[in-house]
Amino acid sequence: DTAVSQTPKYLVTQMGNDKSIKCEQNLGHDTMYWYKQDSKKFLKIMFSYNNKELIINETVPNRFSPKSPDKAHLNLHINSLELGDSAVYFCASSSSYSGRARYEQYFGPGTRLTVT
Amino acid sequence: AQSVTQLGSHVSVSEGALVLLRCNYSSSVPPYLFWYVQYPNQGLQLLLKYTTGATLVKGINGFEAEFKKSETSFHLTKPSAHMSDAAEYFCAVSARQLTFGSGTQLTVLP
Predict the structure, then answer these.
(1) Fewer beta carbons within 10 Å, N or C terminal of chain A?
(2) Apex CA A110: angle with CA A105 and CA A115, to 5°?
(3) How far is B16 from chain A (nearest CA, A)?
């Protein structure tokens, strides 16, 4: 009964390649997020989608492109991978209808991306 | 604008001792405050949250936190540490979006 799932869990690739990470949630939430966690464990939001619409787009290189085919899925495509993209990427979800709980986010297990 | 400062990137306690992880926040609007825990190679799990109402909030695994508006603090405590509490702990504040602190690595010594 995984609430927020991500695939793959580990991704090792070479510089210049293009890769995608997939995220799915079965919580019935309408908002999904991508976070990047660097080697020092610092968490930074990258994107947020509400009902398939982009609502948060932090300063992220254009090589990163999120896509939300429906409310339950948010994928992250990365073009021309660079060494600095190595990190753990977390997907999260929340419900904008939950009143006080609307900022409570549920996280996936993470995807560890290593660029060589 | 909002921000979170976690004092102490590493905290070590002995098993059975008090756990105190410090968090101070800044927010231009009344904040919602959260503590998340991250075990090795896992995602973040919500420990507890403060939205409104009672300023002392209880969470899972025996943790609690107290919201002190005058001190802009939301420190996390647990009366007696257990080996299984060893993890990374993140404080977060939310006004329009969730902003995380830099995390505190808790080590529990036998």
Answers:
(1) N
(2) 140
(3) 27
